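Put briefly, the fold is written as integer tokens. The lines below illustrate.
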Amino acid sequence: MVQAPSTAPILMAEDDDGDRLLTRKALEKNQVSNPLVTVSNGEELLDYLYRRGKFAQGAAVIPCFILLDLNMPRVDGREALKVLKSDERLRKIPVVVLTTSRSPEDLSGCYELGANSYITKPNSFNDLVKVIESLNNYWLKIVEFPRGDGEATVVE
């Protein structure tokens, strides 16, 4: 089984500092070895993946999966998801929508745009730890990825 490269980052697009910090702590509590890269909106997410703006100089490592908030400034999660899933080079990156929205329209709309999972943000840190444990088990231990070399890959 080809698993997610342990060097590939988890890329989180989240505008709330507190949510980013809690997610980082939940990853640490679950002993997830993949680094967490955070951006604060959909524009920065796309800049990271396309190596634009402040990410132009470094290599944009393809993340093992993306945690995507929906309601962010500049480019929201819905628009970023649409761009990601319409790009042949990026569409295979799993996208987990992690949002406060319980809207049926958001849920169905995200799946129509190609989201791989939709999770409503839990109300407590302990519940977030359980969500991260499930994501870790599924996306980093069970799922097979089409990368054969076991190393993180870079957007060309």
Summary: Residues 148-156 have pLDDT under 50 and may be disordered. DSSP finds five helices and five strands in the chain.
